[in-house]
Amino acid sequence: MAENHSCSGNCGECGSREKEQFAECEMRRQLARISHKIVVMSGKGGVGKSTVAVNLAMALTLAGKKVGLLDVDLHGPSVPTMLHLERNLYGTEDGRILPVEIGDLKVMSVGVLLPDADAAVIWRGPMKIGVIRQLLADVEWGDLDYLVVDCPPGTGDEPLSICQMLPDADGAVIVTTPQQVAAADVIKSLDFCKRLNFPVIGIIENMSGFVCPKCGELTEIFASGAGEALAARCGVPLLGRIPIDPAVCRGGDTGQPFINSAGGSVAAGVFRKIVGQIAGVELK
Ligand code: ADP
I want to staple 186 with a disulfide (CB 3.0 to 4.6 A). Which of 123, 176, 193, 273 is the partner? Predict the structure, then answer.
């Protein structure tokens, strides 16, 4: 077994099998330094996955935790925009990639590694799986309390690889919006987790009504309740309902997570309670 193998897989005598085993052991060794792993996913795009992932990671740092945020949305990474990350800002040390550091938050996204922000990523499954493995194993995450992973929509290569590479994860946070048309796709993510035996921490219903900034009245813009119905149907907790709030969108566009930049908003209040349920931390 590679555990007993003394070289780094580059001795020239190792075959591809040994190299693979070495890489696998190395990845396990790195991941063992991370106490909790949380995967944010959804069957539908545009429902607020990246918003949840970025603000969850940021909220956990505000609670004093050491946190990493990994964006595995290879074709449409939003994390660089949502955290205002410069391209090529990352460094390397001893052949390992150093994550971008924003205060106590360590971040890595394929969007930071690519030289051209506007270039399309045209990769097939095996290439994507290799890149995700590298993002987990070759990035110098160090000792972390939490790693939050932002997945692309659907149940394809990226979430499948992540769930298989993180078998000891705390589980998935599933994001939906209140409409049936979203729920019809999001239920597939729940089925995906069930079939992979991957735990579900709970469902977040995002864009759940609009709170008038003047009078505080809640207006249900979309039909309501799909998150709640999904949670009841699948026997998983509904973690909370985040309203539509211009501060959330502004935070995403300006690279200032709303949990920080609009801490007094209704959305931030709801989100703090959600983080409390996910991680058992109390945020003021
Ligand atoms: P996904 O990752 O599921 O594709 P995003 O997190 O990128 O979705 O969100 C899509 C857009 O909706 C972004 O512009 C984001 O800022 C905005 N958004 C997400 N949640 C809210 C909300 N609760 N209120 C207002 N805008 C939101």
Answer: 176
Q: Pairing between strand 105-109 and 100-102?
A: antiparallel
Check pocket membership of 248 for ligand 1, CB cut-off 6 A: yes
- b/e per residue 47-82 (b: at least 16 CB within 10 A): bbbbbbbbbbbbbbbbbebbbbbbbbbbeebbbbbb
* Helix 266-279, helix 246-254: angle, nearest 10: 70
Q: What are the backbone dihedrals phi and psi of residue 281, each rounded to the nearest 5 degrees, phi first?
A: -105, 150
In short, whether 257's Cβ falls inside 6 Å of ligand 1 is no
Q: What is the pLDDT of residues 246-269, one digit of tens each?
A: 999 999 999 999 999 999 998 999
pLDDT surpassing 80 at residue 224:
no
Task: Please say whether the beta carbons of 56 and 275 come within 8 A.
Answer: yes
Contacts of 73 (CB under 8 A, 6+ apart): 50, 79, 109, 150, 151, 152, 158
- Measuring from atom 18 of ligand 1, which residue has the nearest CA? 249
* Whole-angstrom distance, CA of residue 109 vs CA of residue 112: 5
Distance CA 219, CA 165 (A): 41
Phi first, then psi: give them for residue 209, nearest 5 degrees.
Answer: 80, 170
Token pair, residue 247, equals 């501060």
Give the residues across from 38 on adjacent strands. 148, 171
Q: What is the DSSP letter of 210?
A: E
